[in-house]
Amino acid sequence: TGHFPSTTVTVSVNSEAYMEVFRSDLSIESTGIVPQELAEQIVPEALAWASLHGILMGDKAVESSGKIPGTGLVHAPVSLLPSPFLESHFKQAIELAPLFNMLVDEVSKNDEFLQKSLSRTKGADRFTARLLDIHSLILQEGIKQEIYLGLHRSDYMADLRTGNLLQVEINTISSSFAGLGSRVTGLHRYMVNCIGQRSDLDSKAIPENEAADGFAKAIATAFKEWGNPQAVVLMVVQPGERNMYDQYWLSTKLQEKYGIHVIRRTLAEVYKSAKLHEDNTFSIGKHTIAVVYYRAGYDPKDYPSEDEWSARTLMEKSNAIKCPSISYHLAGTKKIQQELAKPGVLERFVKKADDAEKLRRCFAGLWGFDNNEELQVIEDAIANPDDFVLKPQREGGGNNIYGENIKSKLEELKEGKTADSFDAYILMQRIFPPIHTTYFVRNGEPITQKSVSELGIFSTFVRKNNEVIVNEQVGYLLRTKASDTNEGGVATGFAVLDSVYLI
Ligand code: ADP
Ligand code: MG
Ligand code: MG
């Protein structure tokens, strides 16, 4: 191909290897999609492409990298080649995207349902309680926001035990990697083309991924509806954010394609300079804010003092379009996911029986601890902890409890020896995804490992009063992690950015 020497590797690669993954069971070693030697040869090519095309993050080793763009750059952790994914599952996930958008929107409009479903959580989890307080406050004062903007990512894994595609969760706040994820698809097409004749892999099996354009377009649509071309988008960010390039992919697109200016502020900075006006608009310095796009605010650590809560409250009171609104934020909590899975509850929000059935098909088993019937599941989970995941009301990865830790946590909660309570958690059926082999590339180093993948489908939604203006699927993200780690998350260091090779 001319990209790198091909003389040393003569093994031809067959995409059958991908099929094997799905035929094999958990105990059988799968072969990987290209031989190790070939994979290692093409690593420099991948690293160069990633760097040239902005698949970047701030390097932990460089102090300024989370603060000053353009300093201490390192490529984001990626897989060298795309991972196999069943086409039928992929199509199913895409078909579900507009349905989940509608579901989140319907749930978000039902204030009583949100408050009631989260009432026990409120007593057990201070963070959720604060969010609910903001929700109550703005209901009391009268909601000023007329336009709603959803930038969601619904995450799934294929489950070997049931053969089904099961939803892990839906993210309604700070859904990340629309920016970098769509670039990784470009990387993988390039890599498959690079290997060229030495495999029968076909870059056409890697589906289009326009997630970054889709997110920017939805923000721009909402912005235009708001009706003040002089206004700006406020991106609320964490201080020292090393995943800033994923975010800059969206803000630079907004400027270049739509002429919309984006300013970045931390919650603490918003607190210092935001002003709420008589007409319910709010401003930061000379900027009137049309859209608040939260890439912070989902984690209790984002609120080290009352200042940050004041900033959030001020923004929620305003008529700016919050992405997400406080009600969208609450609708995306794990407790609501579990509540919707109860018999008949989802069906209250989805009018077409056919749609409700499609959504339900991807629900894993979910249990709360609200009534005596559900308490039996505690005993089941103590006896078989590997069949469950115990989840608190948190986002951003690294918070769930697995295996033996589930057993000890549940026993501790039963004995009441802790300030913690059952009401802060939900239990979920553990999903067992198929295992394949991935060439993980981190910090320039390739490592071959057994891996599992989680598919995220990005979707956008815009509603003005009662009119739905946008409701679409815009792209995807595959995150792949070593099969022996429980948690996912690219930012948390477990997973790499990947894309799908449809089989
Ligand atoms: P967060 O909001 O922190 O991302 P998730 O519910 O997505 O929380 O859980 C984090 C990670 O834990 C997922 O990306 C996935 O790798 C793993 N995980 C979550 N739920 C399950 C499950 N039911 N079965 C297997 N793994 C799971
Ligand atoms: Mg999440
Ligand atoms: Mg997640």
Helix percent reads: 25-40%
- Tell me the number of structural domains: 2
For this entry, what is the oligomeric state of its chains? single chain
Question: Could you list the spans in which at least 5 consecutive residues all have pLDDT below 50?
Answer: 1-15, 22-31
Textual characterization of the structure:
Belongs to the eukaryotic GSH synthase family. One of its GO terms (cellular component) is cytosol. This protein is an alpha+beta fold and about 500 residues long. It folds into 2 domains: about 425 residues, no CATH class; about 60 residues, Glutathione synthase lid domain (Dna Ligase, domain 1), CATH 3.30.1490.50. About 40% of the residues lie in helices and about 25% in strands. Strands 3, 5, 6, 17, 18, 19 and 20 form a 7-stranded antiparallel sheet that branches. Strands 7, 8, 9, 10, 11 and 12 form a 6-stranded mixed sheet that branches. β18 and β19 form a beta hairpin. α2 packs across α7. The protein starts with 15 loop residues before the first helix and ends with a strand. About 50% of the residues are buried.
